[in-house]
Amino acid sequence: MNLKKEIILRSIKIIDIGYVTIIYGFLAIYLSKVTEKYLGKFDEEKEKNKTLTQSILELTLYLWGCGVVIYIVRNLVPLVPFPLNGVYGFDHLKVKEVTNASVFSIIFIYFQQHYQDKIKYIYSNIFDS
Questions:
Q1: Distance between CA 44 and CA 26 in Å, rounded?
Q2: pLDDT tens digits, residue range 69-123?
Q3: Do residues 109 and 30 touch, judged by C-beta distance below 8 A?
Q4: Are the CB atoms for 56 and 119 separated by under 8 Å?
Q5: CB atoms within 10 A of CB 89
Q6: Which end of the chain, N or C, is more open, meaning fewer C-beta atoms within 10 Å of its C-beta?
Q7: What is the value of pTM for the model shown?
């Protein structure tokens, strides 16, 4: 492969990585806010009326739901067309970042204050007791 083609392909790949990262990032922020709106603010007083087992079970179900959302997004994002796909033989789907939802996962969890507060509450009840 000649140098010019190699530089062009790597440049397209860098653009693609940025493109996919932006898609995952905005989706994560949006979906985390939708989740937050659905769950509402964490209420420590309501949480105190629950057993620790019930709180842990709720957290487990919540994590399961997050896993399902991550799975769905990871399988939908590759369907979004990349404008430079096919240029110089570039294959959008061969870029690992396209099917790797780690950026989405991190941002999705990071922006969920309800989830973080619930973990802190459970943690403090287990280890500060």
A1: 30
A2: 999 999 999 999 999 999 999 999 999 999 899 999 999 999 999 989 999 999 9
A3: no
A4: no
A5: 9
A6: C
A7: 0.86
